[in-house]
């Protein structure tokens, strides 16, 4: 498969201003990660709250500044891209936000909202051509053409997310980044939007970076899974293999909490609880960032940061595996 995005030693840090007796501090939100995204795949990014998923996604869209490293997309390095290059990137890589209602401007009609990216990035395009494209895209995502002059507050959450998807798709992007894009929706609407995304992916040959807390949905929709912890990649591999034989102690703990549909298995299942909270990204632990909560940590885990290496077809950052 062809690589569409190549991420190398990517860091996204945030500086927090100090005060009178407080020194400046740095949040290590994404702290040196390496992975590739392949054309046509859906890659799921999972990990507990605060591990850096959104910081990474926002960095790939230009909403967060990349501190160092590189993210190569279509021969453009997103770490150093200028505004002209970002315009090219935005034509091909679009973002779908978590809260569908908040993401839409209540003063704009559906037509204006969906047309906006096209009018911004292709200012020479004729009004009639824009309108034709708006109508075609609305049809694609299951919105009726007679809703074109209505405002977002007249729609349900699920319909608003369809408007958000139409707004992203009108540019015919190659890559969609979905950051918790279905988390705010209720169960049946969530299923509809997931099915819509899957249908669109097949039809338009989209590549999707799908960020979610819901490991059940990630299992359903993704081809590969990337597990993050405190700004680092813990494990990356094929979906089936990650769910069947997770190698990293963190992935094992994360997946042990996923409910199983079979009540007999669910009843006897051992959930591996992790001790303590996620350490602060202001001061990540020395060595392996997971060492403070890892039940299997050895001396080396406290002194040396493990490299991500290939073990049984998974990329894993762990000293204890071989
Ligand atoms: N603009 C910012 N300024 C300072 N710190 C930030 C900023 N954005 C994110 N952070 C911090 O970076 C860390 C990673 O946050 P991020 O939002 O990427 O996590 P997440 O994995 O998306 O979490 P969640 O699952 O809750 O959405 C957190 O400690 C967060 O407080
Ligand atoms: Mg987030």
What does this molecule look like?
The radius of gyration is 21 Å and the shape is globular. The strands form two sheets. Strands 6-7-8-3-9-10-12-11 form an eight-stranded mixed beta sheet, sandwiched between helices. It has a four-stranded antiparallel beta sheet with strand order 2-1-4-5, covered by helices on one side. It has 322 residues and is of the alpha/beta class. β4 and β5 form a beta hairpin. The chain is built from ten helices and twelve strands. It has a domain of 75 residues. Bound molecules: adenosine-5'-triphosphate and magnesium ion. The site of adenosine-5'-triphosphate has 12 residues, from β2 and α1.
Q: What's the gist of this structure?
A:
This protein is α/β, with parallel strands linked by helices.
Short descriptors:
322 residues; alpha/beta; eight-stranded mixed β-sheet; four-stranded antiparallel β-sheet; 10 helices; binds adenosine-5'-triphosphate; binds magnesium ion
Secondary-structure topology with pairs:
Elements: E1 3-16, E2 25-38, E3 42-46, H1 53-60, E4 68-73, E5 76-77, H2 83-92, E6 93-96, H3 110-121, H4 127-140, H5 157-169, E7 175-179, H6 187-204, E8 207-211, H7 215-221, E9 224-229, E10 232-238, H8 239-244, H9 249-256, H10 263-268, E11 308-311, E12 314-317
Parallel strand pairs: 3-8, 3-9, 6-7, 7-8
Antiparallel strand pairs: 1-2, 1-4, 4-5, 9-10, 10-12, 11-12
